[in-house]
From TrEMBL:
It comes from the Bacteria. Keywords: Membrane, Transmembrane, Transmembrane helix. The chain crosses the membrane at residues 6-26, 33-53, 140-161, 168-189, 195-212, 256-277, 289-310, 316-340, 352-372. This is Uncharacterized protein.
Length: 373
C-alpha cells in the first residue's frame, strides 16, 4: 500500500474515529476533543488533495480533483460546526456531525453512484434516529425520512431508465434538487440542527450530481439549471420577508446546481465552499450573509465570475436570467440597515470561516490556471 492510498483511507476513516472518540469523551471535554479531531481531519483532507493516489489504484473513486477538493470543503464544514457547538450531554448528538461528514465523503467516492445514494440514505436514517430520540420528535423525523427517500427513489428511478433520455434526466434532476434541500422544493430543515446533518448531506448530493451527468444527459443539465434559476428568482421575489431569508439560506446551493448543470465544476466547488461554511442557519450572521450574497472577497464571489464566464458559452438566455436573478436576489436579501459594520467576525468560528472562504476564492482559480482541475 502506497502512502497516498494510506492517507486517503485514513482521511475517510478519521471522521468515524472522531465520532467514537467524541462520544466516549467526558461531556466537559467533548468539545475540545471534537475540535482537535476535526482539525486533524482537515489536514488529512488537504494532504489527500495535494498528494492524490494516481494510476489504476485510484481509477473510478479518487481520480477527480474536484471531488477531492469537495471533501476538503466538507472537512472544514465539520470543523466550523464543532467550533460553534457547545458541550452536549447527548453522546449521539455530539457525534452526529462526524458521522454525517464521514458518510458524505464515502458517498462521493463509491465507484457506483447507486452505492453512494445508499450511503446517503444511511446517513439520513442515522441523523433522523438521533434527532427523533427525544419525546415528541418522531413526526418531524418521519417527515425528513419521507422527503429524503423520495429524492433517493427519483434518482434511482432515473438511473434505471435508458441513459441520456429526457425522462431519466428529469427524474434524476428532481431527485437531486430534493436531496440538496433546494427551497422551495426540498425539506425545510430544523434551523437549530441543520448544520449537524443537512450541510454535509446536501454537500454530498451536490458532489454526487456531477457524477450523474453522463447518465442524465442534456435534460439533466437543463433541469438543474432551471431549478437553480427558479430558486434564485424566488429568493429575489421574496425579498426581506421571512420567506426571503429562509430562501436565502440555500442561495449557494441554487448557484451550485446551476454550475453543475452548466458543467462549471470549479464554480460549483466554490459555491459548495460557501454552502459548507456560510449556508444553512449561519446565513443570518453578518459575515455569512455577506459571503452568500457574493460580495468580494470570498469563494462565492469568484464562483459567480467563473459561472458566468462558462454560461456565456453555454446559453446567453440562461446567462442573462442568471445575472439578473443574482443581482435582484442579492439586492433584496441585503438587510434594510445593511450587513453591519463588523467586517471581521469576533468569534473564532467566524474568523476561521472567513479565512477559508477568502483563501479558497484565491487558491482555487490559481490551481485551475496551473492545471490542477
Amino acid at each position: 500500500m502506497t502512502v497516498p492510498v494510506f492517507l486517503a483511507a485514513l482521511a475517510f476513516a478519521w471522521p468515524l474515529l472522531g465520532a467514537v472518540v467524541v462520544m466516549s469523551a467526558p461531556t466537559v471535554r467533548s468539545r475540545e476533543v471534537a475540535v482537535w479531531m476535526a482539525a486533524i481531519g482537515c489536514v488529512l483532507a488537504l494532504a489527500v488533495f495535494l498528494f492524490p493516489a494516481t494510476g489504476a489504484v485510484a481509477a473510478g473513486w479518487d481520480d477527480d480533483p474536484v471531488q477531492r477538493a469537495g471533501r476538503v470543503m466538507l472537512a472544514f464544514g465539520l470543523l466550523l460546526t464543532v467550533l460553534e457547538s457547545r458541550d452536549m450531554a447527548d453522546r449521539f448528538l455530539r457525534g452526529l456531525p462526524h458521522v454525517s461528514t464521514a458518510l458524505a465523503g464515502l458517498a462521493c467516492v463509491t465507484p457506483d453512484p447507486v452505492v453512494g445514494l445508499g450511503i446517503l440514505e444511511a446517513s439520513l436514517a442515522y441523523g433522523v434516529f438521533v434527532f427523533g430520540r427525544p419525546a415528541g420528535q418522531a413526526r418531524a423525523g418521519w417527515a425528513l425520512v419521507r422527503t429524503g427517500s423520495v429524492g433517493m427513489f427519483l434518482v434511482l428511478g432515473g438511473l434505471l431508465l435508458p441513459g441520456a433520455s429526457p425522462s431519466a434526466g428529469l427524474m434524476m434532476a428532481c431527485g437531486i434538487v430534493m436531496l440538496a434541500g433546494l427551497t422551495p422544493f426540498g425539506q425545510p430543515w430544523r434551523e437549530e440542527n441543520d448544520t449537524f446533518l443537512f450541510l454535509p448531506f446536501a454537500g454530498a448530493a451536490l458532489l454526487l450530481s456531477m457524477r450523474l451527468r453522463p447518465h442524465g444527459g442534456e435534460a439533466f443539465d437543463t433541469a438543474l439549471v432551471a431549478a437553480g434559476l427558479a430558486s434564485v428568482w424566488l429568493t429575489a421575489c421574496a425579498g426581506r420577508s421571512d420567506d426571503g431569508l429562509r430562501l436565502f439560506r440555500t442561495f449557494p446551493s441554487a448557484l451550485a446546481l446551476i454550475a453543475v448543470g452548466a458543467r462549471a465544476d470549479v464554480a460549483a466547488l466554490l459555491f459548495l465552499c460557501g454552502w459548507c461554511l456560510a449556508g444553512g442557519s449561519r446565513s443570518g450572521r453578518s459575515w455569512a450573509a455577506r459571503a452568500l450574497a457574493c460580495f468580494p472577497p470570498g469563494a462565492p464571489f469568484v464562483g459567480c465570475l467563473l459561472l458566468l464566464s462558462v454560461m456565456s458559452d453555454w446559453s446567453w438566455v440562461f446567462t442573462v436570467l442568471t445575472v439578473a436573478g443574482i443581482l435582484c436576489a442579492v439586492v433584496r436579501a441585503v438587510p434594510a440597515g445593511g450587513f453591519g459594520q463588523d467586517i471581521w467576525p469576533r468569534d473564532t468560528a467566524g474568523r476561521v470561516a472567513c479565512s477559508v472562504l477568502v483563501v479558497t476564492g484565491f487558491l482555487v482559480p490559481l490551481a485551475m490556471m496551473l492545471g490542477a482541475f
